[in-house]
Amino acid sequence: MRYAAELEGAGSARRHPPVEKWDPPYCGELNLVIRRDGVWVHEGSPIGRAALVRLFSTVLRREGGRYFLVTPVEKLGVVVEDAPFLAVLMRVEGAGTSQRLTFTTNVGDEATAGPGHELVVRPNPAGESAPYIHIRAGLWAKVARPVYYDLVALGEPRDCEGGVRFGVYSLGVFFPLGSATDAQLFG
């Protein structure tokens, strides 16, 4: 997988600056777009240095439905087409209700689905249902298609309020991915 080498050693142990504590003045818009495919584009050109994208990702903040790069002295608006991150790897430990699903993003953040790191299926900007995992402080990662297929392979039906749902467990929490009827599409 193309992300595996880039993410080697980037894991969840890294710390993020306390952007939620900073209250700098808004300084305008930065010509930066985070595309729905996870590519960060500055002034029309993709940022080729993975380390620079990872650095920018640590100072990304969401406020009132908008995204900003924040430092102690300035706040610059950026455009995010879908979610700011992509979940490109999934590690599975255990099975059944004690299963643990840990997702790694394209910028090296890790999140284990469970309380505080919800796994949801919602419409993306194109109107298609897509899975997302909460990474930190209102920032979400869209689950990349190959990872989603791995996720579906782990799914099972469960009686829920409103009918039988198809989903996965992580840290004892059941995360619905769709109706049991939807699950039949995946055979």
CATH top level class name of the largest domain: Mainly Beta
If you average the pLDDT, what whole number results? 90
What profile does the largest beta sheet have? 6 strands, mixed
Reading side by side through the largest sheet, how are the strands ordered? 3-2-1-6-5-4
Output the number of helix runs.
4
Q: What letter string, H or E per element, gives the SSE order?
A: HEEEHEEEEEEEEEHEEEH
Rg, rounded, reads: 17 Å
Structural class: mainly beta
User: Spans with pLDDT under 50 lasting ≥5 residues?
Assistant: 1-13
CATH superfamily of the largest domain: duf1285 protein
**Beta-strand percentage range:** over 45%
Looking at the overall shape, the CATH architecture of the largest domain is Roll
- Helicity, as a percent range: 10-25%
At a glance:
The chain has 187 residues and is mainly beta. It has four helices and 15 strands. A hairpin with a 2-residue loop joins strand 2 (40-42) and strand 3 (45-46).
Can you put this structure into words, describing what you see?
With 187 residues, this protein is mainly β. The chain has 2 domains: 4-80, duf1285 like fold (Roll), CATH 3.10.540; 90-182, duf1285 protein fold (Roll), CATH 2.30.270. The chain contains 4 helices and 15 strands. A 6-stranded mixed beta sheet has the order 3-2-1-6-5-4. A 6-stranded mixed beta sheet has the order 9-8-7-12-11-10. A hairpin with a 5-residue loop joins strand 1 (26-34) and strand 2 (40-42).
What distinguishing features does this structure have?
187 residues; mainly beta; duf1285 like fold; duf1285 protein fold; 2 domains; six-stranded mixed β-sheet; 4 helices; 45% strand; elongated
